[in-house]
Amino acid sequence: MENSDIKNAGLKVTLPRMKILELLESSDDRHLKAEDIFKMLLDSGEEIALATVYRVLTQFEAAGLVERHHFDGGHAVFELSDGTHHDHLVDIESGNVVEFYDEKIEHRQKEIARKYGFTITEHTMVLYGRFDKIDK
Amino acid sequence: MENSDIKNAGLKVTLPRMKILELLESSDDRHLKAEDIFKMLLDSGEEIALATVYRVLTQFEAAGLVERHHFDGGHAVFELSDGTHHDHLVDIESGNVVEFYDEKIEHRQKEIARKYGFTITEHTMVLYGRFDKIDK
DNA sequence: ATGAATGCAAAAACTTTGCATGACG
DNA sequence: CGTCATGCAAAGTTTTTGCATTCAT
Hints:
The structure is a homodimer.
Chain A: H1 2-8, H2 15-26, H3 34-43, H4 50-62, E1 66-69, E2 77-80, E3 87-91, E4 97-100, H5 103-116, E5 118-131
Parallel strand pairs in A: 3-5
Antiparallel strand pairs in A: 1-2, 3-4
Helix pairs in contact in A: 3-4
Chain A binds a DNA duplex through α2 and α4.
C-alpha cells in the first residue's frame, strides 16, 4: 500500500498526501498539472488547498515518488515514478502523452556524456508531434 | 546582416529588435532568459521594456529566428537558431549549457516515431548533470 | 503534548495584454 | 501619414511562502 511509500519518505501519513498519491495511481492520465490534481480532488469531495498540492508534490518529488516534467507550455506536469526511466511522446494537439523506453538511446546518451566528460544525473527526451490519424 | 532576418520575418526593423538580435548573436551564453536579455540591454544603456523583450522574442520564435526551451526551473530560455537541430547538456550546478548533435540519436528517434505512428514536429533532449572536475 | 502539516491569503516569479504614445516605411 | 511597435502599468498564470490552526504520532 502507498502508506509505506509516504512513511519511507519520512513524511507523516496525512489525508492530503494519501489522496494525492491515490489519485496519481488511479488516474487515466499519468501526467497531471498541480491544478489538475487540485480540481480532481475538489470534484471528488476532498477539502484541500492548492498550496498543499504543490507542497506535497514537491516533497514526493524529493522522495523520488513522483517526477516533475517541464514540457512546453510553461507549467510543470507530475507523474508517479515507476522506478524505470522513460521518455515521452507529446501530442501537440491533444496534449496526450505516451511513454516509451529505448535501450539504444539510453546507451548512446551515456556515450555522449562520456565524450563530454559529463556525469548525467537525470535526462529527459520529449518528441513533440502528432499521432497519425487512423482513417478507416 | 541581421536586418534582413528581421525583414524576412515580416517585421519592421526597429531599434529594440535589432538590439535583441545583436545581443543574441554576440552573447557568450547562447541560452538566455527574457529577463537576462532585458537587463543586459539596460546595462548597455538601451531603453527597452521587459514586455518588448517578450514580444520580440515571441515574434522571433514564430519566425524561426530563435528557439524557446523549457529547461527545468520554470522559466523559458531563448537561443538563436542556427538552422541545425541540437540537444543540450545542462550543468545543474552552474547552469552552463553545452550543445551537441548526435546522428545516431536523431535516427533512432525517427525509428521510434515510426513505430508509434507519430509524426515529430520538434523534439528536445536534455541531459542534466555535472561536468567532471578537471583537477590537475 | 509537540512538532509537523494544512488552509488561507498574500506574495513572488514569469509572462501576457490594453492602451496611449512614438517610430518605421 | 498610416500603421505597426513600444513603453508603461495592469492583469494573468503558475508557484511559493508566512502564519495561525489543525492533525499525526
